[in-house]
Amino acid sequence: MARSSHQNILKHLLLQPAKISHHGWVPAADVYELQAGWMIKVELAGIRPQDLTVTLDGDILRVVGRRRDWVAHETRGCRSLEISYERFERRFDLAGVPDGSRILTEYRDGMLLVKVLPA
Amino acid sequence: MADTITLPLLPLKNSVLFPFALMPLAVGRPQSLAALEAASKGEEKLIATFTQRNPEVDDPQLADLSHFGTKAVIRRMARADGGAQALVQGLERIELVGLDLSAAYPTATVRSAPLPTDTGPEVEALQRELIELAAGIQDLIQGEPRIDFAELAGQLDDPGQMVYLLASMVGLEPAKAMALLEAPTRLEAMRLLHEELVREKQVAEVRQKINKQASSEMNKEQREYLLRQQLRAINEELGEKSPEQAEVVQLRQRFDEIKLPEDVRKEAERELKRLESTPAAAPDFQVTRGHLELLLELPWSEMTTDNLDLTAARVVLDEDHYGLTDIKERILEHLAVMKLNPEANAPILCFVGPPGVGKTSLGQSISRALGRKFERFSLGGLHDEAELRGHRRTYVGAMPGRVLQALRRAHVKNPLLMLDEIDKLGSDYRGDPASALLEILDPAQNSTFRDNYLDLPFDLSKVFFITTANTIDTIPRPLLDRMELIRLSGYSDEEKLEIAKRYLLTRRRKDAGLAPEQLVIPDATLLAIIRRYTRESGVRELERTLGRLARKVALRIAQGDASHVTLLPTDLKPFLGSERFFQESARKTLPAGVATGLAWTETGGDVLYVEAVLLPENDHGERFMLTGQLGRVMQESAKAARSYIVSHFAALGIEPSMGGVHVHVPAGAIPKDGPSAGVTMATALASLYSGLPVRNDTAMTGEITLTGMVLPVGGIKEKVLAARRAGLKCVILPRENARDIGELTEEVQQSMRFEYAERIEDVLAVAIPQLAERLAAVPAQ
Fold it and tell me: Going by CATH, does the domain composed of A3-68+84-117 fall within 2.60.40.790?
């Protein structure tokens, strides 16, 4: 991984998992190496599939989306709010992704799994 | 409208939320709480923030809100009793389209209004400038975490974001923040921000400077303190005292050993204590030490015992100086008084006389006769009062005044202190040294003389002050009043001969390394040197000339050309060149209208001629013309003389003349003034009108009144000596000046004839013998 991204990840580790940046909030993520390719696990609970976009542009994997509440309007009122809503974005700089790599996504138990596999 | 949305409204007091910025909020107003509540129940927790134009208003209407605001998302919220804390983040700029205050919570209809993405060279330049400024400010503030603004700018999707991010970091005043948010173009917003960042940077710079100064001072002091502590520890370990401590201890020992007046000891004790607690590096240390050393070295009580053996004193004075009988007598009188009354204050004398007559050496001689220490300094050109009275210790490089310095050198409180050239004191904006001298030379005040540096009274009353001057005209009156004047006039040729034989030749021969028999100069040769090679009232030039002769003779002897030399008057020319002065010989014949006068100058006496001619009746020039650089007093004196002569034509047996008269006094280049040429003018005019010449061997001096009386004048001794030098035989003096003749040596008195005049007729009778016959014929009025 490129140095700056590595630093960014370190920052994310040291700060909070859902850091707020100018791109909206940032979900926490794990990055795994596969025999060939990568697997990224992003903590993204309560996201409707239609609100989620995953793109690969060269070595950059982008996970963009928004979290929308669906239950609060049924309550009397909110006492405390900690979950980040609205737009989020997370970028991963993956070194040496071959051209024509495929993306496989899976959304399970509030976690988004993204696999980047060579063609 | 299709592109408008309706959101709960949160009016902001005193703050502006920028897009992309995070802001903590404390919400208390029921309306706002309700809006926040509604937003937190929303799907995306969105809320519209608008800043109130007037923070005092509690229920803002449309007009009370800024036109542009920010759509925000609630990131965190916690409710407490009666209020809520929230953290909101701006998302984008919005425009306020409508307001609904009728529902349970206020809502705003807004339209997205992102900052235009106008570009151009100026926008580009400003963008870079802003990044640099922000980086600069960050460097100055040195806060953590550090942000790489250039990288950040690259990561931003929207260049306008940069402006809002920076704006939210700077912390603008609400009015300025509002203006920035409402800026119609990106360029405008950047300009506003740039202005603010520049100011912010200046503030940061000043803050940093202040911080640095404070911390560097602190660091230096701490460092020095630590080093000093270490040094002390090492010294203690070695059983040694630090050098400066040792110095203080030494100073204290010296103070314990000497006798000091009580108040001085008190002051010294106080300063010693202070010195012990002052670090040696402090500037005060050196100042205080210098002052203490002065206290130690000043002669507070040390005195020499005066040698009051009058016979011995007379011997010493005679040894050192030839002649000056009168002055020696005056000095011995003072010694006699000191012998009879030891408590009397030392006298303050002022020697006045031309250069080279031995004023300074006379002072030395007196100190030798008395057995006092001799110190001298020159006041010539001194123009700073502090030179005499010292600088206050607060000044860098402050020193005690010259008087105290001299006493410090003398080591006794009763030296003979010679202040040379008191007539050449200057004065300027730094004060008037003459006024300082008033205190120093006043026996009533100088027992408690206070030098600025010493800052303690010092007793100068036992100091024997002698001042010297060439003239008393430039000495301020009050100063003159404090001193006893002793005039040293010029020497006669005979006196010079004696001085040359006794002192000058011996000294110069010794300087040249010659034995007495190797250079013999007979009296006749010495006189020739005095008369033809030097013309002065003192003997400096004479001594130099003798030195030159001695060196030339030394050259001959060293070359082996001769073993000894005896100089005859005829030998002088090869040694000294042509005669430099011709003996002032009296003019051989005087035409009618010329009379010989005598003048006194600072350097001795001189002979001068008054010339008068009759102008023809048809001449239309001035009736009475006076030339020769005559001063006002002299001109008036000439007019009085003429008026007297003209009004007494009949009595003098003179035919009245209608023509004008021109009177000239050579040499024309030398300014002359004073009344003492009055009788000479009258005599010249009487001679002119009568056509009878004045005797050519007679000179005259005296002031004339309009009624023909002759009044006494000064400088008789110098004038007579000048007349004698010129080869004149007779001098006519005012009767009252007869007593001054006693000043002259016996020899001079013998060689000259003196006539005393009470009236101008007495003068004329002597000066114009033929007129005397006529006067005798005419009965006196």
Answer: yes
